[in-house]
From TrEMBL:
SMART domains, per database record: S_TKc
Protein name (record): non-specific serine/threonine protein kinase
InterPro entries: PIM_Ser/Thr_kinase, Prot_kinase_dom
Protein's organism: Paramecium sonneborni
Enzyme Commission code: 2.7.11.1
Enzyme class of the recorded protein, top EC level: transferase
Amino acid sequence: MSQPCLKMNQSMKSKLNSKFISIQESSVGLKIVDPDSRMIQVFLFWNNSILMDWNCFFEELNAGLEKNLSFIIEYEETKYFIYGNAEDLLCIYKFCAGKYIFKKGISQKTLEIIKEKHDYQLKSIYDQSRQKFYYEHIILPQMNDNLDMSFYSEVTYDREKFVPEEIQIIKDLHITSIPQFIHVDALYHDGVQYSYIYSKKDLIKLTLYYNTQLDNPCFMSHTAYQLVLLLIALDEKGIIHPGLDLKNLYINPNSQDIVLASYYQAYYQLNNEDRRLYANIGYSPPEYFKINQKLTTKANVYQVGILLFHLLLGYNPFGKTQKEMVSNHPKNELNLKRLNTFDSNLSDFIQLLLVQDPIKRPQPSQLLKHKLFSISYKEHQSKLSILQQYHQDIQEFIIFNKTSNIQNVKPTIKFKK
């Protein structure tokens, strides 16, 4: 196996057959340019035969080394050794994370198995190489006679292995760097299984955060806007996501981004027109129950309507209990009357998402034109928020005045002459 040794621009050269190169981040992948031969090698994001090995890099970094570190790119039976200093290689690592598949090392320690099903395992881990805590989602292989090949994307060049569609979707969404999807720090392959790691360190459950924003009239319109951005991203990629519900939604309180923290069961509508994977009773669109009707990304729109209703009123429109939802959902019996007690623009927006006929249901890009996101409405909500805060401050001052027992303090110190 040939092993050309490439090197970042720095003063010291490797003794091996190395050369100075330029590495560039491009919209289609990592680009390596040899200034002497003018050769350009582009490692495309979509090429699943590319495998990167960062294990040695992190070992050397944790040992205190800062120069002449390296990582490896394996491609078509060739290994490219990329050398550089810590700062440069870390920049390349961040660019590659979630877009390329990395070779899994042995630095991870399992802390707890959180959930396990027939097709995946979720556990909390400590990654000693990165010195961070993560969640690891392991995709369990389903190689049997009844394997649904639609769960897998293209065949790679490396021993004819199949890449799970979940991995392909993560790569696709990370290429465009969309903040409404949880960031994956690494896509892994250990020779048998695929997995990925992520952190929820800066995230809070949306339902918990909403309870702190009950007096904020702007928060629901902000939440709706963030979810529309998420819908547009899924629509542009042609992705249907059955897990688009409240239990998978978080918020970053610093950036105020709403974040979907799950890629499980997401699939491309183009290659999976007849798939029926919706697992959550109370969220599936009405077309799910019509076998002869194909599912499209408009199914995502309906699910956002359900979760906004649930967030606003505290229960699912198909019922307050699991028993009620199981009974009402297949019959499509949902009660939207209580929406009329809320802001008319917000109520109208949610009902628009819940239009029964998917043909009449709006496309995600059309939703941005709704009055809920107009400048005049935002100004009106901001004024309401200021007035509410003003009245709250006045009320707190009145209460303080009534309960205050501050007494005048008289001087008690006596001086001797």
